[in-house]
Backbone:
């Protein structure tokens, strides 16, 4: 089984249309606090915040599948994993699939996307660049 990449817009559409769809933001506390979060209020939801790597060591969260279950998620949920640019979220989605969460998707380009020509994120691709709702924490 492999993890499918979906665009941020496709993930947003799924979150609004499917009651079993959940956005799992796997960034760090620092990123949630200082960069912002997807605002899922229009979908009547909140993102589930579970770091894939623990700041500041950036060691992989070995209890990640357990945290998914403790958040009330089940294999019936469609899980859309989001990070800054799509790399950590892909690893998290793969780990979720290996733990029995077969409906795991990677949000391509993540929350901020790749850097632009000036080295800044949030303008070329990703949740923010696509104009999807977000807020500061």
Residues:
């Amino acid at each position: 089984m492999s993890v499918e990449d979906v665009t941020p817009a496709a993930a947003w559409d799924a979150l609004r249309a499917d009651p079993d769809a959940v956005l799992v933001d796997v960034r760090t506390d620092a990123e949630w606090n200082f960069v912002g979060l997807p605002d899922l209020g229009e979908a009547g939801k909140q993102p589930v915040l579970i770091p894939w790597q623990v700041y500041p060591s950036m060691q992989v969260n070995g209890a990640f599948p357990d945290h998914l279950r403790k958040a009330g998620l089940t294999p019936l949920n469609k899980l859309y994993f989001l990070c800054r640019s799509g790399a950590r979220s892909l690893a998290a989605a793969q780990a979720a699939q290996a733990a029995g969460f077969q409906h795991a998707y990677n949000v391509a380009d993540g929350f901020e996307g790749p850097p632009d020509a000036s080295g800044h994120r949030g303008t070329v691709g990703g949740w923010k660049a696509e104009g999807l709702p977000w807020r500061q924490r």
In short: The chain has one domain: 4-135. The chain has four helices and nine strands.
